[in-house]
Specification:
Purple Acid Phosphatase, chain A, domain 2; 6 helices; 28% strand; globular; six-stranded mixed sheet; 258 residues
């Protein structure tokens, strides 16, 4: 089973870049399923039903999210009704939506789980114990986890904690692609952060000048999605079709001119 996971898609710049790159990658790598983190896809914060639909038209089958999932309230009913988008499972059970879903891939079932870290992040329940809780209910060895977190140590510790149970743990949230992709000793593919799909010359996808001013002055500033040359980051993961163990993980990155 081959999974193509697109890193955090940031605003219109990221969406347009994905639309340009994805046809080429689909032809070259022939993924069996395409996943993406869509929590920043609309205006850089949140996702709307319209944006989700447009991205699905490109071939994305399922979306993970993160701490910005609540920024566009119009997505709330979709979180409840559509299993193709999940919010972090370790958020309150009273919050809209589901934390994992089961997606058919070839003749198999892929569990897609979204979890949020707790270090330097908003309050959430323990992602380690939440994974244990979900994993105990699964009837498939194919388990993909998007761990949306700030701290590299937390992401690594989680990945080793679920090694041999999760097929893959892919970190998101920092928007910076890390060069540490590997298969852990018990067969889990891991990368600390997949990166982003967004403006290359930016502050993690957002305009530079307001972001710089915020650091200089300590004052809040409004920052819009940056434009210009874009970068598309992703990971390609191959799983054994019997055991669900990882056979390979590859970083992908393509830079586009305007």
């Amino acid at each position: 089973m081959r999974i193509l996971f697109l890193a955090d898609i940031v605003g219109r710049t990221g969406r347009q870049a994905v639309a340009k790159v994805l046809p080429e990658w689909r032809e070259r790598y022939a993924p069996d399923i395409i996943l993406a983190n869509g929590e920043n896809a609309a205006g850089g914060k949140g996702i709307t039903p319209e944006v989700m639909h447009d991205l699905m038209e490109l071939g994305i089958a399922c979306f993970t999210t993160g701490n910005h999932i609540w920024d566009k309230k119009e997505i709330y009913p979709v979180l409840e009704s559509d299993p193709r988008i999940v919010r972090p499972a370790n958020y309150s059970p009273l919050a809209p939506g589901r934390g994992y879903t089961i997606v058919p891939v070839l003749d198999k079932q892929l569990a897609v789980i979204s979890l949020a870290g707790r270090v330097f992040m908003e309050h959430a329940d323990c992602p380690f114990r939440k994974f244990d809780e979900i994993y105990a209910t699964l009837d498939t060895p194919f388990v993909f986890v998007d761990f949306h977190g700030e701290a590299t140590s937390e992401k690594a510790c989680f990945a080793y904690y679920v090694d041999g149970r999760a097929s893959a743990v892919v970190g998101t949230h920092t928007h910076v692609q890390t060069a540490d992709e590997r298969i852990l000793p018990k067969g889990t593919a891991f990368i600390t952060d997949a990166g982003m799909c967004g403006a290359l010359h930016s502050s993690i996808g957002m305009e530079l000048e307001p972001s710089i001013q915020r650091f200089l002055t300590g004052m809040p500033t409004k920052s819009d999605v940056a434009k210009g040359p874009a970068v598309v980051c992703a990971v390609l993961i191959d799983l054994d079709r019997t055991t669900g163990k990882a056979l390979g993980i590859q970083r992908l990155q393509k830079r586009l001119s305007e």
